[in-house]
Amino acid sequence: MPVLLDRADWSLWLGEIEGADLGDVGALLKPCDPDLLYIWPVGRAVGSVANNGRELIEPVAPLC
To answer: What residue spans define the domains of the chain?
Structure first.
């Protein structure tokens, strides 16, 4: 899972803050705002690099 950071935390994560302790970045590893991510089922065509197009992100009925 990638790390999702608030824009205000980018400088600390990238080490751009002078004198910041490297241990400070550990505090950034926390769950992100639940309103930031959305999930929905998509078709099996998503699993192949041969497929490309907006239709790949269209929601489909769950298989189970």
So the answer is: 7-57
